[in-house]
Structures are given as structure tokens and as C-alpha cells.
Amino acid sequence: MELKDKKVIILVEDMFNVFEFWYPFYRLQEAGAQVTVVGSGRTEEFTGKPGTQVRADIDADQVSTGDYDGVVIPGGYAPDMMRRCPAMVQIVKDLFDAGKVVAAICHAGWMLASANILDGRKATSFFAIKDDMVHAGALWMDESVVVDGNLITSRKPDDLPDFMKAIIAALK
Questions:
Q1: Is-above-0.85 flag for pTM?
Q2: Which residues are CB-contacts of 158 (< 8 A; sequence separation ≥ 6)?
Q3: Domain 7-171 fold
């Protein structure tokens, strides 16, 4: 139980990538972390691609970021919905500014751009949002996982093993 005393948020919104949500969710629990699913507050239950349902434990505007050690942001098209929720964006910004783990995979780079935390940082993402990442100031790299301080990013579901190894190492 290497993460026994750690508390981690996983953000959720409709159209989340099921692999990028469930793999981190269960891997973090397996490592002993307490995982809290945080939704936008728009609804209690969110639908992923292709139809998996997830119920949020708490709404973003009820989160006290000081209680958490990090956040994982799954991809899919959910990040485009997440970034429309100021409280979700604020969670990412607050945890990043506090030096806590901020981990984003695939299209989740959109949340990093909206939180304005990419300027001068090494990062990766799904190739289709590379331009968005670069325009937000990221030094974009085509690697399975990129770690720059407390920022951890990956490109796609195939990168999940490397992504989770980096997250768990950073949370220890």
C-alpha cells in the first residue's frame, strides 16, 4: 500500500475515455490511495465513451484542494466539457500552484491550457491538440509520459502503464 495516506481526485464529465478513467481509478486504489471522483455538478452521473456510467462523489465547487495530494484528468472529449466549469479549472490550477501532482492524459491537455499552467513546461498530449498545447506555452514532446516537476502528461491509452508509474512515483 505505497499510497496509503494519499488522497487523489479524478475529474469526470460526459464523454470521458473509459480506459483513461478506470485504469487510473483502480490502479490508485490498488496502491492504497483514497480516490475521489469529482464532477462538474451539472449532473450526478456521467457517461463515458462508449456508454460507461460514473457517479461523482462530490461536485467541483465543494472541493477543498488542500485536502488532496493530486488530480488525474482523463481524456476523451470530457476535458472540453470540464473546462467550461470554472470550479474544475480552479481545482487544477490550485493543486498545480501548491506543487501537488497534476496528471493529464490525451485531450486533458485542454484543462491544463484553461488553467494557464503550461507556459514554459514540458508536456505531451494526444497529437490532435498539440497546437493548443503549444499555443498555451507548452514545450510539446512526443513521448509516452512527460514529467516536468509536478506536471505529468501522456498521449493516449497505450501510454497508461507509463503514465501510472510516473503518477505513483510522484505521489510517494
A1: yes
A2: 144
A3: Rossmann fold (3.40.50)
